[in-house]
């Protein structure tokens, strides 16, 4: 099941009604879980959100949002666990420091989007914007050029390190076998493995120095 998680830090149900509509509009989620980090489970908040969605059922995105399976749970400040088994994390209304921390943790997983709802028109005290009626953006904050570059750089280095480590381990294994068991290993094999180790080191250096 495609799961999204909303990091709930606000007591305003309208915030999450709109977020749920934006999530539903993307069409990538079947289940939404409200996460209360280091705080008590706010059952009343979820009830109010669901009631408001019913009242907005005449709007397509909100009607679709009402079909999502919604749940909630408390969670200690364990961001690795927060990112586990989900494809989207919503940080709308989350304090900037925490949102950055979550986005930074998600850099290690290219399959997770960290999204935030933003209205593209100036907010007015007497007007309530709604998804599908007013202009908004619900984008992956990691798609920002700087963060995206960091993610690509991390993934590139990780892959090179894995390959380099495998080659190095194989070479070390052959050397140990030759010394400990007296295996006769052709010089050509040793030369090829040494060459691969050198190429792996050069590739790692290239990735480290490369700038997007």
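Q: What amino acid sequence fits the structure above?
A:
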């Amino acid at each position: 099941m495609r799961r999204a998680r909303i990091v709930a830090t606000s007591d305003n149900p309208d915030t999450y009604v709109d977020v749920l509509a934006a999530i539903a509009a993307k069409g990538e989620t079947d289940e939404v879980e409200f996460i209360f980090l280091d705080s008590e489970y706010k059952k009343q908040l979820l009830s109010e959100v669901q009631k408001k969605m019913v009242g907005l059922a005449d709007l397509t995105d909100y009607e679709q949002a009402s079909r999502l399976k919604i749940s909630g749970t408390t969670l200690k400040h364990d961001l690795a666990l927060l990112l586990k088994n989900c494809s989207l994390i919503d940080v709308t209304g989350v304090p900037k420091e925490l949102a950055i921390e979550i986005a930074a943790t998600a850099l290690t997983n290219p399959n997770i989007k960290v999204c935030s709802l933003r209205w593209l028109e100036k907010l007015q005290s007497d007007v309530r914007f709604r998804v599908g009626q007013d202009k908004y953006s619900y984008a992956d904050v990691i798609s920002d050029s700087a963060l995206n570059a960091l993610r690509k750089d991390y993934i590139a280095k990780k892959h090179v390190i894995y390959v380099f480590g495998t080659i190095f381990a194989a070479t070390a294994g052959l050397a140990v076998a030759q010394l400990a068991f007296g295996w006769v290993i052709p010089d050509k094999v040793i030369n090829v493995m040494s060459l691969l180790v050198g190429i792996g080191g050069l590739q790692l250096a290239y990735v480290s120095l490369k700038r997007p």
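Q: And what stands out in the fold?
A: The first helix runs from residue 13 to 26.
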